[in-house]
């Protein structure tokens, strides 16, 4: 990438306002040009701000084994309440916090953020004159800039979509590749809840398709190919931006290992990285993977016939439930030198 833009990146805040305040303060002290929030911004449940309660502490109906009964009518009521409160948190808490920070910010939704709130956030953020921005979750391109050298800009490709999994919010979930087996072999949970404007409470139950047609047209692989082509055309170049912000990590990387020892990253993202070799990709989604790798948060993937091209894959490994948040500080001119910092105050 040409030019130096200083980026503060984190993800998976999940409504923890204390964490977010510290991240914004640290970005200001570091003299960053932009804060990029890579998804899963808002509270997961019905609490405003940081909701430390587990599902077992709520009024959500439970089965005899202690797990939530998501098929119960009370579960739909719970999700509708959470949907409403999440929307209030975006407009009443998050956007004012970002607007008050000296450093401009760009926000990407994640799989825990209800899709219907995105346009509301984009309209509310418009009043900041571009200081706070929200990008489209199905795929978007945005530009970040140095605050000291106005001619220095970097294009960034972004996408919220995640492979179909066992989470209950399904707005941003898709089949992974054009091969149905790459999704079905994971035995994902296909049913859950999606945004539904006009429906009572704004959401409804759903069951996502795992079919050859869906794999061919709406899988992450299909979406990423269209997005990459669109970005290249918009930039009037043969290649997409050199920096990507994708909520989920690529398969078999430092970002996709769970506490259960499972690899849950996206095969489609891995293929796209190896094909197009962006300079750097930033990811969240799997909170514990960096911990599972002993604190290692970045790796270099080589591609091309002679391995002459390389991509730095970076996972922030932030967990909203722990005492302190983690951030990535990255200079776009030197992605290999990215730092992962625990923000203590």
UniProtKB/TrEMBL annotation:
Query: Locate the Calcineurin-like phosphoesterase domain: which residues?
Result: 6-288
Q: Name one GO molecular function term.
A: hydrolase activity
Kindly give the InterPro entries that the UniProt entry links to this protein.
Answer: Calcineurin-like_PHP, Metallo-depent_PP-like
What is the scientific name of the source organism? Micromonas pusilla (strain CCMP1545) (Picoplanktonic green alga)
Question: What is this protein called in UniProt?
Answer: Predicted protein
Where are the membrane-spanning stretches? none
